Amino acid sequence: MAGSDVLVLIFEGDEKLGPLHRRLAEDITRGGGKAALLSEQNSQLAAFRLPVVAESMRPLVEILPIQMLSLALAARGGFEAGRFQRASKITNIA
Question: Max alpha carbon distance in the chain (Å)?
């Protein structure tokens, strides 16, 4: 599903989930896709660097800007936001 024309933005998350998310970014890159890990210390994509916030506020800081971006990109491309085009809601990893 992830080819060279797809960029996947992945939030590093907390200390517990960080290693899992870093591995996901590596898997996507190894599979031929592009992945960017977003965090408070991210230097990869400065525009997506997250502010330092309380742990309870992290989900809001992570998801709201991406949701707004996805709505704008969908409208610009003439797509229906939230509609799967390349996969179903359930995927299998071989």
Answer: 38
Query: Which residue type occupies 79?
Result: F
Q: Are 10 and 37 in contact (CB under 8 A)?
A: yes
Residue 29 burial (CB < 10 Å; 0-12/13-18/19+)?
A: middle
Place of tokens 């960017």: 36
**Residue 34: Cβ within 10 Å count:** 15
Is 65:59 a contact under the CB 8 Å cutoff? no
Distance CA 57, CA 23 (A): 24
Stated pTM of the model: 0.65
C-alpha 14/C-alpha 60 separation (Å) is: 14
Reported as a single tens digit per residue, the pLDDT across 51-87 is: 888 888 888 888 888 888 889 989 999 998 877 777 6
